[in-house]
Structure formats: C-alpha cells, structure tokens
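Write out this protein's structure.
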Amino acid sequence: MLADTSFIIDVMRGEESALKKVEELEEKDKLLNIASISFFELCSGIEQSDKPKEEKEKIEEVLGSRTVYDLDLGAAEIGGRIDGKLCNEGKKVEPQDSMISGIAIRENEKILTRNLDHFRRISDISTLQIE
C-alpha cells in the first residue's frame, strides 16, 4: 500500500479515519509505504510551517522506518504518459500525483489517499488501484 501525501498529512493531524485505517492495515500485516515525491511535498511543508521543528518530528514519527519508493526511469515514464494523456483529455492533475501513480503502478501497490478526484482520473486511464 502506497500512502499519498494527503493521507500522511491526515495521520499527522490525528484524523480518526486515517488512524483507524493505519491500525487496520497493521492488524492485517500490510505494509504502508510512501513515494519519494510525497517526502518531497512533506519537506516543502516543513519549510512553509510556522513550527518547522514540530512538523519535522511529526513526519519522522509517522514515517518511521517505512519504505520510500524512488521515482526511477520506469516510474517516470509511466507517470509521464499518464500526465500527458490527462492533459490531452483536458483532465489535468498535479504532476506529483502522476509521478506518485507511476511509482505505485511500477511497484504494483494500491494508493491510499483522500485526494480521490485526481487519482480517480488517473485510475480511469491506467491500472492504478485506489484504496
């Protein structure tokens, strides 16, 4: 399972539904991983925060020892094709979401997100699965 940035933020904020989902996954021994793109977005948020030290600590607590999948050439190609196709169809999403999707598809992982609008557009034209 690949956690999107929006889901990680929900966990950091203590959102009940997100915390319940993490607990459910852990009970089923399902690993919750992240993409390097999400880590980038979280680090950007640290720098924009009024309390960067506290935000960094929250991120470290939530991420722990989770696997971080990198954007390699294969994932970049998948994500780039998705992004281009959506642009051509007038259904543009954030490029980061296309990159995260490329990583998820390459790793054969479902995306766990609250940003359903963008990821549904992507899943409509690809093999991406959403949780």
